[in-house]
Amino acid sequence: MASQAAPAGSNQGGLPYALAAYGFWGFVPLFFKLLESVPPLEVLAQRIVWSLPFCFLVMAFRRQIGDYLVALKDWRVLRMLLASAVLIAINWLVYIHSIFSGHVLAASLGYYLNPLVNVMVGMLFLGERLSRWQMVAVAIAAVGVAILLGGALDTLWISLTLAFSFSLYGLIRKVVPVGSLPGLAIETTVLLPVSLAVAVYYVGAGDGRGFGADSGISWLLVAGGVVTAVPLLLFATAARRMSYAALGFVQFLAPTIQFVLSLFIFHEPLKPAQLACFLLIWISIAVFSFDMWRKMRAERMIEIA
C-alpha cells in the first residue's frame, strides 16, 4: 500500500484518529436505522454511487487523482480491486440487512470475530505462524461459534459473513499496491455501473420509500457516501501514525458500541447461546490482546536495547 504503518511501538498522534474511526463505525447503526424503510439493496447502491464523488473531492484536495489513474490502468491491480470491491459490497449489504432486520448483535459478534479470523487468514494465505496464545484465542472463539450452531443458527450466517468478507477484503488491500483512498475510489468505480442500474431501477419503481420519494430520505442516502468514506480516511491516517499492533486494541471499540446499542437502544433480545458465545469471544479477545501486548512490549525492549 502507498501509506505504511508506523513502526511498532511508535505513536505519532494516531490514537485520536483511530478512536474517531472506530467510534464512527460503532455508531453507524444509528444512521442506517433512519433508512430502514428503504430496501437494503437500494441503500447499498446509493451508498456506492455517492461515495465516488466524495472520494474524488478528497483525492483532488490530497492530490491523489494521479495515483487513482495509474492504478486504474494496471490490470493486475484492477483485477485485485474488483475482487475486494465484491467482498466489501457483500459486507456492506449484509451489515445493512442486519441493522434493518434487528440483528445488530449478530453484526457486533461478526466484528468481534474479525481480528481472530484475520489471524487464521494470515496463517493460510500469508504463511504467518500462530503463536501459542493466538492458537488458544482462536480455539476459544471456535467453541463460542459452535455454541451458536446449537442456539442461534438463524443469525450465525450474518456474523460469519461479516467476519470473513472483511478479513478477505483486508487481505487483498494489504497486498495490493495502492493507497487507501485511491483504492476505495477504484472499488466504487468498478461497482458503479451495477449500482447505478439498481438505483435507477428503484427510482423508476417509485414505491415511495427510496431516493426521490422524500427529501429527507434522499439527503440521507446522499450522506451515505460521506458515512462510507470519512471513517476509512480516519483509519488510514491512524494506520500511518501508529503501529498496527496498537491499532488492533482500538478496533474492539466499534463492536462494543454496537453491542451496547443493540441491547439498550434497539432492545434486541440476548439469547442464552448468544450470551455464552459473547463471553467466550471476550475471553478469546483478552487472550489475543495479551499476546499483542506481550509482543509490543518485547519489541520496545529490543528498541531500547
TrEMBL record:
What are the subcellular locations of this protein?
Answer: Cell membrane
Keywords attached to this entry:
Cell membrane, Membrane, Transmembrane, Transmembrane helix, Transport
Membrane topology classification: Multi-pass membrane protein
Q: Where is the EamA domain?
A: 14-149
Mind naming one GO cellular-component term on file for this protein?
plasma membrane
Q: Which residues cross the membrane?
A: 14-32, 44-61, 81-100, 106-126, 133-150, 156-172, 184-204, 216-237, 244-267, 273-293
Q: Which Pfam families match?
A: EamA
State the similarity comment.
Belongs to the EamA transporter family.
NCBIfam families for this protein = rarD (TIGR00688)
Q: What is this protein called?
A: EamA domain-containing protein
